[in-house]
Amino acid sequence: VEGMCHGGQILCTMETWKAVSGMAERYLGRPQILDCGEHLLFETRIGNTTTRYQRRIMQLVPREFAYDFFEARGRKEVPAPDGKNSLEVKDASLVNGRLFPPVISKKQLTTSFLNAPYANGRVTICFVYTIGLDKDSPQRAPNLKILAKYVRRQLLVLNPPGYECQEDNGCWMLAFDRMVNAVFFGLQLKAAVREGAEDLVGRVNRENMFKVGILSGPFTSMGPHRTTGMADYFGPIVNRAARVASNCEPGEVCVGI
């Protein structure tokens, strides 16, 4: 892990961060946490067998040196000549703090915070709700793990890849750089689960597994979540995208205009 660092950078594995995160506020001064994604650390080969060692990497920055992404990214309200407020892209040059390039990696296996879209203070937010599984079934947890692989696989085939902001019991909040990629993701995810999810067990509805809601627009701010280090977006677009997904019929991919 040390070999992945740039000068002045502090990196650790997700497991290490989980072990000490409970002490972050009292003993560690609440450092800024940045999710660097999952990386291949090294490989070992014995005969014809190759073992890959991969870990999710976290970046820690002392609070007093941290770059304030929330102040640097997004749009803010400014008075307009007609007396109404308009949205203006924030000036990132006014924000100071430590920024590092992507970690020095043999291979990046998943997206990192640095892959989260933010250009021009606009983003496409996508919510995916899992509704094709029984809520009280003992197979729900293993089935959700299988579905998570489908979601993440479809994110990575895009260029640039879609970004996973958070997941909670089969509900995903995702971010894309533009609407067309989010729509393509939703349609491909629906097709992949309908045609290929043979490893799901128990009573499942592959045809109507998800409700997908998508909305593009400006966001107020974004930055790393204080405990997960993953990109967290703020602004009306987040709630509106969630409402679009909630109002979908089972199996639909809905777009807010």
Structural write-up:
With 257 residues, the protein is an alpha+beta fold. Helices cover 22% and strands 33% of the residues. The chain contains five helices and 13 strands. The chain has helices at 14-20, 69-72, 140-156, 179-196, 236-246, and strands spanning 10-13, 32-46, 49-61, 75-79, 85-89, 107-108, 122-130, 163-168, 171-176, 210-218, 221-224, 231-234, 253-255. Strands 8-9-7-10-13 form a five-stranded mixed beta sheet. Strands 1-3-2-6 form a four-stranded antiparallel beta sheet. Strand 4 and strand 5 form a beta hairpin. Helix 3 crosses helix 4 (179-196). It is globular and about 55 Å long. The mean pLDDT is 91.
Question: How would you sum up this structure in a few lines?
Answer:
By secondary structure, the protein is of the alpha+beta class.
Number of distinct helices: 5
Task: Summarize the main sheet.
Answer: 5 strands, mixed
- Global Rg: 20 Å
Described by its quaternary structure, the protein is single chain
Distance between the termini: 45 Å
List segments where confidence is low: pLDDT < 50 over at least 5 consecutive residues: none
Q: Give the overall average pLDDT.
A: 91
Q: Approximately what portion of the residues adopt beta-strand conformation?
A: 25-35%
**Which structural class should the secondary elements be placed in?**
alpha+beta
Shape: globular
Number of strands: 13
Name the helicity range: 10-25%
**SSE string, helices as H and strands as E:** EHEEHEEEEHEEHEEEHE
